Amino acid sequence: MAAPPVIPRRQSKSTNDTAANSHPIGVNALNGGDRVKTDTHLMHAQREVELVNHCFADVERFMARLQETAEAKNILEQQSIKKNSKKNEKKKTKKKKEQDDDPLTQRVTPPSEQEFVDIFQKMKYSLSLLDRLKMKISEPTSEELLHHVFIPLHLMVKTTGGPELAATVSSPAMTSGAIALLQQNLNEQEKPLWKSLGPNWTVPYSQLSEIMPQYKPVFLDGWQPMAIDTHGQPIEDPIESQHKHEALMQTQQVIDQARLTVYQEHDGMEDSLPPHEERLYRCSYDFVARNSSELSVLHGETLEVLESSKRWWKCKNEYGQIGFVPHNILEPINHAEVDSSNVVMRNQSMKAPIPPPGGGRVSCVLPRSTGKNAFHPDPRPHSMPPIGDNGDKVFLMNDELLQRLANGKSASIRPVVINKANETTAPLDYHSPPAEVQGWLRAKGFNDYTVQSLGVLTGAQLFSLNKEELRAVCPEEGTRVYSQIMVQKALLEDERKATELEAIMKKQKMKVDLKAEGGEF
């Protein structure tokens, strides 16, 4: 039984019959304020109607071919039964040669496996299209057309000897809407057939772990859908667009759930800390405190970060001492282990962590080193520098201090060495579209699941996620994604400051040039 052609849904005749009849297909009433948007919507709907009708046409042609093959096979079988006489036996060789060129013999040849797969693909494609068109077509409706699809599907599964071949057809993947449409409308005879086809037919793409190639149907009559819209923009495949939309919705749901969970767990708490193991950082350099607010640390010492805002982090060592440490000499222990393939780890210092002398609680403790290479701090009193405007001066002082320390301990201090083979120039900023986000994630070496889950976001959306939200979306690599995002944010901030400084210097140069020109006269 052939599926009837899809008839577009007509708008109900109301106060504007002329507008309702001026479009090739009717949809539910849209706001009339945006005519361009309405026309674009109608154009895409008409294109999808044509796609589903051509899918049905190819299915009908294929089923007609199967019917002809079966009829021709029966005729040949009947003819072979009649060949029992001696006369026919003597002419066996001659008859066989004639049958090879007989059109009836050619019709007996069944379709190839690839031809069966092609029709299975078009059936899956049409099911997802029917879900998108369920509010736009009528007589018959999308719900009614489902049953017309399952009649040839049942015959094809039976012809191929079972559901095994159909079950291997992974592309195009099913949309969530198509799965819901099938669940709600298949009858008791159709549901077992659908379930027997396996996850490639019963599970939406948003819940599959593997990445499917984009499906592009090739129709038997040579017809191709319109590729460019009236504004000259390329038209994306409707099912591919639906997959991206559903992936974005699923990612957003996971993020919202993670935010809700965090809110519920920390409701009423002014300050909540991450798990203990995520607050552990390793010192990459020695640092000598200059006042009672800072904390002296040694290279390789493990600290617990209590506050990580601004540039000075409040830390606690294993002896319970608490003080501020520059954030640029700390590296997260778990991140260092994850990224061990890209970073050459520093050698541990031969010194032991600094214990509190005399059992007292002192924040500033100097290393017990003697001799000409011993470091002698400036005896002048220092106060804790303000964080913010004078932060750069603080880091200049620390860099000088670290350089003086390095003069006597060059063997124990080694800077980070980045593997240049893993460097990437893939762009990513707050204006990046999803395509650039995908490229950046792939360039950083993240797995397909992470790229698929986060690649539907824009740059601004990705930058807005915190560590807990990233771990909720990507449990395996969420922490490393967060680390890379922090690095990217820092790079963007440096670029912004460099651009501002360049503009200031350019403006200053213009003033100097104007003064010089004025002095000549």
From TrEMBL:
Residues 83-96 have a biased composition (Basic residues). Its main location: cytoplasm. Residues 1-32, 77-113 are annotated as: Disordered. The keyword Metal-binding does not apply. GO terms for cellular component: cytoplasm; ruffle membrane; vesicle. SUPFAM superfamilies: SAM/Pointed domain (SSF47769), SH3-domain (SSF50044). GO terms for biological process: positive regulation of ruffle assembly; regulation of Rho protein signal transduction; Rho protein signal transduction. Residues 276-335 form the SH3 domain. CDD domains: SAM_EPS8-like (cd09540), SH3_Eps8 (cd11764). One of its GO terms (molecular function) is actin binding. InterPro entries: EPS8-like (IPR039801), EPS8_2nd (IPR055093), Eps8_SH3 (IPR035462), SAM/pointed_sf (IPR013761), SAM_3 (IPR041418), SH3-like_dom_sf (IPR036028), SH3_domain (IPR001452). It is found in: Cytoplasm. This is Epidermal growth factor receptor kinase substrate 8-like protein 1.
